[in-house]
Write a structure and sequence with these properties.
Length: about 425
């Protein structure tokens, strides 16, 4: 099997490295997050579940632009809504009726949503939710779990938060998802900070484990007991694990939830949705953006939610995801390769179960060999399914895996994994951040 021709990708990357710090706008899309020299860097166009790179190579894509693509690239009903709106103006001097229409659509499908605000990115949405929670409770501390974006609100928690004021460190502390006991369990953290907590802020899903209802119910009870708010970051889980997100699937309603990636099939918009009494507090706070009511993303939101409600989108994501996950596990088991796909079929993850230093190399080899054969996966997942992945697209990926996994198995058995890697700098390729 020939290596991919990536000449144009590599040339563009060399140019970008001179012009753009890190050569990328998104950390997880940097070539170092994939396999430098063995996977495409620049994409020319996309349609359905397929993308074409600047060198003309075609792939079935399971990266989904890191989550926003739920219906498919260039999905006709969404693109048509955007085109029609484009002809009427992308942004106005006053408000657009689409703000009302999109807010109404969200309140009809999201359990906690009585009122809704719109911003552009996930990080903006989560930071606005944190501000509303602080404004509403009059407390400062966020008891946090998970990643919510790059802004200071969240960066303050990181040990190496260079560029974020050190004084903000006291404004956030963390707890461990899924832990019912121990120092970092939510109960212990809330007890240590009695009366100081503005909200418990969390992703309501564990990517490796889909059975988390009991934990979410416990978090709800604890938030109530401690008289604080519960905020769900449903940027990845929303419009994907269920139409109404994890809150619908597990029947646990937060006070506020934030949506972004799945809401508009790829246009830049985030929604902060919550209980009326809490959301009303936003009226007293500075949460404002020139682009908050930008119309193309709102039109895409309305059109996407219409599709979710009127087509079997979510069951399809589950069915295609199960097909991918269970067959990958079946192939791995058949040939005795310690590779496991697990978690939510709509966005599964995977890992190898050998000594730690060969697991990364095996992942690199998997990505390289699958890309060569026209399938794009992300390092460890998440493998995002969209509504345009048909059974034959998943089966195409499985056919390639039937060739690739035995290559991995024999490389693991003979200890020759590194010899098969085309990438010049393996260590660089495994750095995600
Ligand atoms: C759970 C979650 N929250 C928030 C964000 C931040 O969203 P954005 O990159 O649009 O700012 C991400 C991005 O990956 C995410 O996965």
């Amino acid at each position: 099997m020939k290596n991919l021709n990536l000449t144009k990708s590599m040339q563009l990357y060399a140019e970008a490295a001179e012009l753009i710090p890190s050569a990328s706008q998104t950390m997880s899309k940097r070539p170092q997050a994939f396999v430098m020299g063995a996977m495409p860097i620049y994409i020319e166009r996309a349609e359905g579940c397929r993308i074409w790179d600047v060198d003309g190579n075609e792939y079935v894509d399971f990266i989904g632009s890191l989550g926003p693509i739920t219906l498919g690239y260039c999905y006709p009903a969404v693109d048509e809504a955007v085109k029609q709106q484009l002809a009427k103006g992308t942004i106005y001097s006053m408000l657009s009726p689409l703000e009302v229409e999109a807010a109404r659509a969200i309140t009809e499908v999201i359990p906690c949503a009585e009122m809704v605000r719109f911003l552009k990115t996930g990080a903006e949405g989560t930071s606005a939710a944190a501000r509303i929670a602080r404004g509403y409770t009059g407390k400062e501390l966020i008891v946090n779990q998970g990643y919510h974006g790059w802004l200071d609100t969240w960066a303050a928690e990181r040990a190496n938060a260079v560029g974020t004021p050190g004084s903000m460190k006291e404004s956030i502390t963390s707890f461990a998802f899924g832990a019912f006991e121990g120092d970092r369990c939510l109960d212990a953290v809330l007890n240590r900070h009695k009366g100081e907590v503005a909200c418990v802020f969390m992703e309501p899903v564990s990517y490796a484990n889909t059975d988390t209802g009991d934990f979410l119910r416990w978090c709800r009870e604890l938030a109530d007991k401690h008289n604080t708010l519960l905020v769900f970051d449903e940027i990845v889980s929303g419009f994907r694990v269920a139409l109404g997100g994890a809150q619908e699937r597990f029947g646990v309603t937060p006070d506020i939830a934030v949506f972004a990636k799945g809401i508009s099939n790829g246009l830049p918009i985030s929604a902060i949705a919550g209980k009326r009494e809490v959301m009303k507090k936003a009226e007293d706070l500075i949460i404002s953006s020139t682009y908050g009511g930008e119309t193309l993303s709102l039109a895409a939101t309305v059109a996407s939610i219409y599709e979710y409600r009127n087509k079997p989108v979510i069951p399809h994501l589950w069915a295609m995801g199960e097909r991918l996950m269970s067959s990958m596990n079946g192939i791995a088991e058949e040939i005795g390769l310690a590779l496991e796909f697990r978690g939510w079929p709509v966005m599964s993850s995977y890992s190898f179960g050998y000594e730690s230093d060969i697991n990364q190399d095996l992942t690199t080899l998997l990505l390289q060999e699958m890309a060569k054969r026209g399938v794009l996966l992300r390092r460890g997942g998440l493998n995002f399914i969209n509504y345009s992945h048909k059974a034959e697209d998943v089966d195409f990926a499985l056919t390639q895996a039937r060739e690739v996994l035995p290559i991995l198995k024999s490389a693991q058995a003979s200890g020759a994994i590194k010899d098969l890697l085309t990438t010049a700098d393996v260590a660089e390729s495994i750095r995600r951040f």
